[in-house]
Amino acid sequence: MADPAVIRIRAQSNSSVVESIWASRPADLYDGSRRDRFATALWGVRTLFGGFASASRWDPSRVSPVRRTHLATVVGRELVAPDVVALTLADPDGGLLPSWTPGAHIDVHLPSGRRRQYSLCGRPGRRTDYRIAIRRIADGGGGSVEMHEAYDVGDPLVFEGPHNAFSLGMAEPDLLFVIGGIGVTPILPMIQAAQQRGTHWRAVYAGRSRDHMPLLREVVSVAPERVTVWADDERGRCPSVDDLLDGAGPTTAVYVCGPTPMLEAVRAARARHAHAPLHYERFSPPPVVDGIPFELELGRMGRVLSVPANRTALDVMRDSDPTTAYSCQQGFCGTCKVKVLAGQVDHRGRAGEADDEMLVCVSRAKSRRVVIDG
Ligand code: FES
């Protein structure tokens, strides 16, 4: 059942009411130390009816259209590893959620104004409910901690999507899934779909111990003989890339999702097979490649930030203002897009950047200085 507070407020979707809710948000939503379900409900309504509104000065709504958001209710909450919580989401009115395919993710709009992306890890294509799983990263950007603390059964959750940038190929006859820890979330539905289709597949699932490998039992239960479980505490060491790719032939399609060192090792090893499909999804930003230092001028604030060769403009902006809006940090969600007032941008994103726009998580400058509307 939806929280009664949500139903009541939805019935009076009046912008002045909603704006006053925004202005009077409780302080503990920023503290993250104590849940406030009523506040979470109100925040959900504000986000649903107002589109995404960032707490940042670099509000992406200035350059991006308001996107379609959906309201769900948290109907299940379960710890699937000591630091991983799985949330089950359903339509508040009992309807079907939007369709999706394995590898898809949703963009969750958190009560603080953060946006974070989480892969759907329920049964492939299931629309009566979604499942997402979140690893708590205590020293991260705060999104995962907030996901753990802000939502309980009965709470509303606002999301966009689903979107899929990591889809399972239909015509690949031989698949190897390489999984590292929480990287299991997009891959579990892929494995289930491959099994249903009768495609030949194998999986290697690596983690520090079985206890810390979320959804392991579900992966193994699909076809135990096809899954290699690599628990470091049992084998005495981390897997090498040869262990991860054992048995992969020159035409095997490899799907990998896990920590950056694992992903980069697999990418490098598979580079010798130019015609073998390699699909991957990152959970952390890619390293800056061919970075040249530049200056970022925040036009309205009159400040100039120095972006070094090995850091992104987003990193530097977050140093200056921790509330700067971002989500994927990989140039495809559009959350960090800003308006460019002067200077030439080296566009590196995939979310579509006009000449006068910049995805500050990946794009850089061709000129010495870029001036943005910030
Ligand atoms: S944070 Fe997603 S495009 Fe920059």
Proportion of helical residues: 10-25%
CATH topology of the largest domain: Rossmann fold
For the record, the CATH architecture of the largest domain stands as 3-Layer(aba) Sandwich
Strand order of the largest sheet: 4-3-6-1-2-5
Q: Please report which band the strand proportion falls in: under 5%, 5-15%, 15-25%, 25-35%, 35-45% or over 45%.
A: 25-35%
Q: Mind summarizing the main beta sheet?
A: 6 strands, antiparallel
Total domains? 3
Bound molecules: FE2/S2 (inorganic) cluster
- How many alpha or pi helices? 11
| CATH class wording of the largest domain | Alpha Beta
Rg result: 21 Å
Number of strands: 18
Mean pLDDT: 83
Low-confidence stretches: 1-36, 45-66
Give, in order, the helices and strands.
Answer: HHHHEEEEEHEEHEHEHHEHEEEHEEEEE
> What is the structural class?
alpha/beta
Annotate the secondary structure layout.
Elements lengths: L3 H8 L3 H9 L4 H4 L5 H14 L18 E13 L2 E7 L14 E5 L5 E5 L10 E6 L7 H8 L5 E8 L10 E7 L3 H14 L2 E8 L8 H7 L4 E5 H4 L5 H4 L8 E5 L2 H11 L7 E4 L12 E5 L4 E5 L5 H8 L16 E6 L2 E2 L10 E3 L4 E2 L3 E4 L2
Parallel strand pairs: 7-8, 7-10, 8-9, 10-11, 12-18
Antiparallel strand pairs: 1-2, 1-6, 2-5, 3-4, 3-6, 12-13, 14-16, 14-18, 15-17
Helix pairs in contact: 1-4, 2-4, 6-7
The structure holds FE2/S2 (inorganic) cluster.
For this entry, give a set of tags.
374 residues; alpha/beta; Elongation Factor Tu (Ef-tu), domain 3; Rossmann fold; Ubiquitin-like (UB roll); 3 domains; six-stranded antiparallel sheet; five-stranded parallel sheet; 24% helix; disordered N terminus; binds FE2/S2 (inorganic) cluster; FAD-bd_FR_type; oxidoreductase; Phthalate 4,5-dioxygenase oxygenase reductase subunit; 2Fe-2S
